Amino acid sequence: MRSMNLKSYGDVFHNLDQARFKKYLEYFGVKVKPQEGQDIFEFVKKIVVNGLRSDQLDEFFIGYEIPQISKEFDLLRFGNNFNLDIELKNISTTEKITKQLIQNKYYLRALGKPVKSIHTLYRLKKYLYWTRTTI
């Protein structure tokens, strides 16, 4: 699996036909279900519109897996002094999301870097507006 730029992912998702997009994902060793691919595209589109630069979207792993424990992270980025885990959900409950984030924190702690949780749930409303809810 190779890391990729999320802006590039969004551009390719939007502009390539399905067969060529599949080859693009194969090159990076990424497997995503159709709905996950759409969710990532919508997320990237929203954060780019809100001012994130392309270089801030570098080095992300999509669908990063720890096969020994069947654990998958939606979007994961490893930095020199941080690890960023972004979990995207189309449909879920606050309880399920909270449980998953607690598990992810446990696994990421094994990397020996501080783990900080903001315990915030962002809900995507109609027309791509965000609502922030503390959990």
Describe it.
It is built from 4 helices and 5 strands. With 135 residues, it is α+β, with helices and mostly antiparallel strands. It has one domain (6-130). The strands form 2 sheets. Strands 1-2-3 form a 3-stranded antiparallel β-sheet, with no helix packed on it. Strands 4-5 form a two-stranded antiparallel ribbon. It is globular and about 40 Å long.
Largest sheet descriptor: 3 strands, antiparallel
Q: What structural class is derived from the secondary structure elements? A: alpha+beta
Low-confidence stretches: 126-131
Q: Please bin the fraction of helical residues.
A: 25-40%
Number of helices: 4
Beta-strand portion reads 15-25%
Q: What is the gyration radius calculated from CA atoms?
A: 15 Å
* Mean pLDDT across residues: 82
Terminal CA distance: 32 Å
The largest beta-sheet arranges its strands as 1-2-3
Shape: globular
Give the topology string: H per helix, E per strand.
HHHEEEHEE
- Total beta strand runs: 5
**Total number of domains:** 1
Summarize the structure.
This protein is α+β, with helices and mostly antiparallel strands. It has four helices and five strands.
